[in-house]
TrEMBL record:
<dbReference type="GO" id="GO:0003824">
    <property type="term" value="F:catalytic activity"/>
</dbReference>
<feature type="domain" description="HIT">
    <location>
        <begin position="39"/>
        <end position="146"/>
    </location>
</feature>
<dbReference type="InterPro" id="IPR036265">
    <property type="entry name" value="HIT-like_sf"/>
</dbReference>
<dbReference type="Pfam" id="PF01230">
    <property type="entry name" value="HIT"/>
</dbReference>
<protein>
    <recommendedName>
        <fullName>HIT domain-containing protein</fullName>
    </recommendedName>
</protein>
<dbReference type="InterPro" id="IPR019808">
    <property type="entry name" value="Histidine_triad_CS"/>
</dbReference>
<feature type="short sequence motif" description="Histidine triad motif">
    <location>
        <begin position="130"/>
        <end position="134"/>
    </location>
</feature>
<dbReference type="GO" id="GO:0009117">
    <property type="term" value="P:nucleotide metabolic process"/>
</dbReference>
<feature type="active site" description="Tele-AMP-histidine intermediate">
    <location>
        <position position="132"/>
    </location>
</feature>
<dbReference type="InterPro" id="IPR011146">
    <property type="entry name" value="HIT-like"/>
</dbReference>
<dbReference type="InterPro" id="IPR001310">
    <property type="entry name" value="Histidine_triad_HIT"/>
</dbReference>
Amino acid sequence: MMPPFQGGRAIMWTMALALQAAVTVPRCPLDAPYDPRNPFAQILAGKAPASIVAETPDMIALVPIAWERPGHVLVIPRRAVRNLDDMTATEMADALLLARRIAAAQRRAFGNTGYVIQQNNGGGAQHVCHVHFHVIPNTPVEKVEHATPAQMEGMRARIVAALDASGD
């Protein structure tokens, strides 16, 4: 897999930061239509970079630009899905199965003893209008508002190595 920020991808990185900065609260009422300009849609369309740690046919897991704890990963469906209400039962199962794999890799990579899987819906709670699951290890708090490509690549590499070591 090619490192996510080689070559001209630095420009895409700047665009990704701008897209994230454009997200304001509340932005995702439950009845709003899906907005294909959201940051995750841009990643899925190949228009913004991502530090992907794992993929399935229907889901991807990636390191977010901002995190409160090292090892934080997001699981998102490849399909344009604005919130949990719009997910199929199969997508929900796939998301949680991938989240469980990521949580196991986080334990191997960071030595954490627990984790949280968080999913928000609607205005005031959901900041990006594409359903996503946070998989947050109970590592010490180390808040990062706008991770650099090097920070994201370092986090991605640790989790991928832990996934590879397990045979997942």
